[in-house]
Amino acid sequence: MDKPYTGGCACGAIRYSISGEPLFSNHCQCRDCQRESGSGHGSYLTFARAGVTVTGEAKQWDMVADSGNVKTRAFCSVCGLPVYMTFAAMPDIFTIRAASLDEPARYKPQVVTYAARGHGWDHLDPGLPKFETMPPA
Questions:
Q1: Does residue 2 sit in helix, strand or coil?
Q2: Residues in domain CENP-V/GFA (predicted)?
Q3: Domains, the chain
Q4: At CA 89, angle to CA 84 and CA 90, rounded to 5?
Q5: Cα→Cα distances 76→22, 25, 73, Å
Q6: Which pLDDT value is given to residue 65?
Q7: So what's the pLDDT on residue 106?
Q8: For residues 96 and 16, is the Cβ–Cβ distance under 8 A?
Q9: Residue 68, pLDDT score
Q10: Residue ranges of the chain with pLDDT lower than 50?
Q11: Beta-sheet strand order (sheet of 70-76)
């Protein structure tokens, strides 16, 4: 069996373990991710929900994505670190923030999404494919 992806928030109140490999890994330059990260983008790994175990209780808040679908962002109520996201329209997936990994070097971005909203000062790997919004499914 492959080594699980593990991680959590900065204070340890929320922990996760995920079996399997990511379905998708991206840097997202949408305004929501910029605001949440306090940077020019957010970096994410998306997995099948079936392989995910979470301990600890996250605070959650919903927002409406450009698609019109609701995404729920989860963060630690103690240290404030954003940890994961779920999507009402795609209940079988679970997305974590790359920075929340115990071993962040395991993150290998595949693409840049919402590049149309990127800033010139946010220099990402120029070899990554860029999509103006989200790539087609």
A1: coil
A2: 5-122
A3: 5-117 (2.170.150.70)
A4: 55
A5: 23, 22, 10
A6: 80
A7: 97
A8: yes
A9: 82
A10: none
A11: 58-64, 70-76, 82-87, 90-97, 42-48, 24-28, 111-113
